[in-house]
Give the backbone structure.
Amino acid sequence: MLWAVSLCILWASFTLGVPVNRGRQKLLLISFDGFRWDYDHDVDTPNLDQMAIDGVKAHYVTPPYITVTSPTHFTLLTGRYVENHGVIHNMWFNTTTMEKKSYYQTQFVNEWWDNGTLPIWITAQRQGLKAGSLHFPGTASSYQGQVAMMREVEPTRYNYKNETAWYENTDKVMDWFRDQDLDFVSMYFGEPDGTGHRYGPDSPERREMVKQVDRTVGYIRNSTENHGLTKQLNIIITADHGMTSIYRGAQLEEITLSKIPGFNFQDVSFHLLDYGPSGMLLPKPGKLETVYNALKGAHPHLHVYKKEEMPEHLHFSNNDRIPPIILWTDPGYVLNGVLQFNKGEHGFDNQEMDMKPFFRAVGPAFHKNLEVGPFETVNIYPLMCHILGIQPELSDGHLSATQHMLVTSADGEFSCLCFIIQLSRLLFTSGGLQYSNYTVLVTFLMGFKLV
Ligand SMILES: *[C@@H]1O[C@H](CO)[C@@H](O)[C@H](O)[C@H]1NC(C)=O
Ligand SMILES: *[C@@H]1O[C@H](CO)[C@@H](O)[C@H](O)[C@H]1NC(C)=O
Ligand SMILES: *[C@@H]1O[C@H](CO)[C@@H](O)[C@H](O)[C@H]1NC(C)=O
Ligand SMILES: *[C@@H]1O[C@H](CO)[C@@H](O)[C@H](O)[C@H]1NC(C)=O
Ligand SMILES: *[C@@H]1O[C@H](CO)[C@@H](O)[C@H](O)[C@H]1NC(C)=O
Ligand SMILES: [Zn+2]
């Protein structure tokens, strides 16, 4: 009787992972900035391929709008759409003073990030876990006075491409997991975004950078093994957005606001322009209709919306920080392109395939060799909370959208039940077990919530 129970528990703990060890599994969330879903199609990526065999690969994932770095990363950490978490742009701005801060400076503006939504580090720590973050957007800020227990913010003018530094940072994070017993860490790499912007997503330079990412994925998995973490550590690798090529040439009809008939910068009291495809405008009092009517329909590749009329799927309307008029261009175009020289851009509609990031996951919680369909990145947050065994905050994501990637408790319980039935039958036929033993065994296991 007892040996049968222990055998089943032993077997279950090997197979089930999550339900038996709930709370004991660790999780590393990695973002490779701007890694588009199909970047592995034209480059040899042995390590990413191996990760797909050992774990789960999604066809692609859908980021929230606005498809730029800080807003989409904060969605990964919170499971909320951008209008709900409030980090609506890479740049902090004040429409009264006209002041703006760069992406890097904005990392240090607490009021910008801490706008009512808690990132997973803080939630995990409040529930007794230990969390860390390395270079992940949002790391520098505090949230209701709290920060991630272990954290590292990159210095200004950081070289985001340095492969040696990528390996050192990997080992540092693995040390945190092993030596500080951290449960969750988020880690950020600033490529292939930089290379995609500078040379374009179809360039040989981008393909070389994808090889560097792939080597690093190999290094991450080796380092996991060398730190003795393979059986405990789950690794999710994804990105914030994709990248698309910008058209150039004399025949191209650029979208330049100052050349649009009826549009006058005098009618606008604040604007956020020259940021890839997107723009935001605050018209002066009484000038909303004038500005809107001048811009709407002014160019076949320019989208112009009043905030309250934004398309539903963008979830980019219901927030006081969003200015009254929102503009964006179709892929290939930028807004006020005369002032912009990047060959690749992002920030477009999140329905555009070129804006979709990749997604891979491996570890004891995940199925092996499973390819799944696309899902929205808001659903990564409830998945992470489930793996860590913590209660999520209010989010826009649903575990049901990502749970099929997991060796779920339901699967485990079902196969454990099958195992018990098989074992009992074996013992029945060998004459060593009577019906009473079977009942006792099942009752006992139900006490353990295994069946
Ligand atoms: C089954 O139960 C009987 C009493 O009901 C007990 O004598 C016997 O040792 C049990 N067998 C096993 C394999 O546990
Ligand atoms: C913008 O600046 C003005 C003037 O300093 C200030 O009153 C206001 O609170 C600021 N708004 C935000 C959102 O920081
Ligand atoms: C969010 O920020 C806005 C200003 O941008 C502020 O008015 C509002 O009170 C903040 N909300 C929370 C919950 O911090
Ligand atoms: C790359 O990083 C390594 C390790 O941190 C450092 O020693 C080296 O100077 C860096 N190289 C460049 C070009 O930044
Ligand atoms: C990972 O380890 C394997 C086997 O030890 C080795 O062949 C491979 O080069 C290592 N990869 C990296 C990126 O360190
Ligand atoms: Zn980015």
In short: Residues 410-446 form one domain. The first strand starts at residue 26 and ends at 32. The radius of gyration is 25 Å.
